[in-house]
Design a protein that fits this description.
This protein has 396 residues and is α/β, with parallel strands linked by helices. Helices cover 31% and strands 30% of the residues. It is built from 11 helices and 20 strands. The protein has helices at residues 12-15, 73-90, 126-130, 132-143, 155-159, 203-216, 230-237, 250-262, 277-287, 308-324, 343-356; strands at residues 2-6, 20-22, 26-28, 36-40, 46-52, 58-64, 96-101, 110-115, 118-123, 147-152, 165-170, 176-181, 184-189, 220-224, 242-247, 270-274, 291-296, 326-336, 361-368, 386-392. The strands form 4 sheets. It has a 7-stranded mixed beta sheet, with helices on both faces. A 6-stranded mixed beta sheet has the order 2-6-5-4-1-3. Helix 6 (203-216) runs parallel beside helix 7 (230-237) and helix 10 crosses helix 11. The chain starts with a strand and ends with a strand.
Length: 396
């Protein structure tokens, strides 16, 4: 067994059971990509078993902090079993569920989503790549399913020195599926859609959107970065009379329109704009348009804290414009999926945007990822999705 020895004082994070060892913490030692290594402190005392990623800034991702633990097929089967059991306990109200959430489930680099009878997996680190076959077989055995599609086409693969890999790992067939959640149907394609095919992390926030539209009688809704219309369908199902959906992807908007039809909703209540969101928001402000509810769900703008300052300016700009377009008594549902922008920073950005827009806003609720995308006490970096519901104070 090869050993990675850390520099003095660099063992503290592993002692707190944080799973990452950065390259700057390593005094000596290396191994092949994905190979299991023993991690010792500067005095040679055991800290963890982990997977080596010689091409990555994250040099080791810890598998276990128990010295007696064996990293073998049985280990991965047991970790997967525990992850799936947790989701069963959560009783998610959908047939689209995240079964494995990487570090949060003790399997760094591995994401597995279930869409009905189909599993979709992303192998984003050298360690899980090395054990791919074992993991694939265990997933099918534990779920009783026969179809597993791979979507290992994330940027993290490049950082690990791994090529992209997509396609059927087990089974085969049509990649176009229909997801059911909160009484709505959403079409997706696991081969072509974002992430593993859809944004399951926003499931409960889509349900909340529907509830808020119904509760407050929000008639005119603007859905920005609408993708395939999850929030559009939710707003219409909640009783919105008109929803304007803006996205720069024509194919995504076509799927969104298909999702509206799939749910038997009135297409005449929809307006689809294949356009740049920022430019559209500015044009709407110039036109004096206003809405009862606005959803801002932009793509990741700050993958790390190093990008936070630039991302903060972009988030502030779109939220400032959103506030300007909001009717008194209207609701802004605004999100950030950037890991480099923390909850408190995002709150400050949105507050500053409201001030600059001259809007008196009331923060009603904070939002986050669905519970099948857990954040653990040892790995707070797992909290990437955050959102706020803000009401523009009604006029007297």
């Amino acid at each position: 067994m090869k050993t990675i020895r850390l520099k003095p004082g660099k063992e503290r994070s592993l002692l707190r059971r944080h799973p990452w060892v950065f390259d700057g913490a390593v005094a000596k030692g290396s191994a092949d990509p994905g190979e299991t290594v023993r991690v010792d402190d500067a005095e040679g005392r055991f800290l963890a078993w982990g997977a080596c990623s010689p091409a990555s800034k994250i040099r080791v991702r810890a598998w276990s902090f128990e010295q007696a633990q064996r990293i073998d097929a049985a280990f991965f089967c047991e970790r997967l079993r525990a992850a799936i059991a947790l989701r069963e306990r959560l009783a998610v109200a959908s047939d689209g569920v995240r079964l494995v959430h990487a570090e949060a489930d003790g399997l760094p680099g591995l994401v597995v989503d279930r869409y009905g009878d189909t599993l979709v997996a992303q192998f984003g680190a050298a360690g899980v790549e090395r054990w791919k076959g074992v993991i694939a077989d265990a997933l099918l055995e534990l779920t009783g399913l026969s179809r597993l599609y791979e979507r290992s086409d994330t940027s993290s693969r490049q950082l690990e020195g791994l090529p992209e890999a997509t396609g059927w790992l087990r089974g085969g067939g049509d990649t176009a599926l229909v997801l059911q959640e909160h009484g709505c149907k959403l079409g997706l394609d696991v081969a072509l859609g974002h992430k593993t095919g859809y944004y399951l992390d926003q499931r409960d926030n889509r349900g909340l959107c529907r509830e808020l539209v119904q509760r407050y009688g929000l008639a005119e809704v603007l859905n920005c970065y609408s993708y395939t219309g999850g929030f559009t369908v939710a707003a219409l199902a909640g009783g919105a009379q008109r929803v304007v959906s803006v996205d720069s992807s024509g194919p995504a908007l076509q799927q969104a329109a298909a999702n509206v039809a799939l749910n038997g909703l009135d297409a005449a209540r929809c307006e689809w704009l294949d356009a740049d969101v920022n430019a559209t928001l500015r044009r709407f402000v110039e036109q004096g348009r206003q809405f009862d509810a606005i959803v801002l769900d932009p793509p990741k703008l700050a993958p790390t804290a190093a990008h936070a300052e630039r991302a903060a300016r972009a988030y502030k700009d779109i939220n400032r414009l959103g506030f300007k377009l909001l009717k008194p008594g209207g609701l802004l549902l605004t999100f950030s999926c950037s890991g480099g922008v923390g909850v408190e920073l995002f709150h400050k950005i949105v507050a500053s945007a409201g001030i600059d827009a001259g809007v008196d806003g009331v923060f009603l609720q904070r939002m986050g990822g669905a519970p099948d995308h857990p954040m653990t006490v040892q790995f707070p970096e797992g909290e990437y999705l955050k959102g706020l519901v803000v009401m523009r104070r009604p006029t007297a």
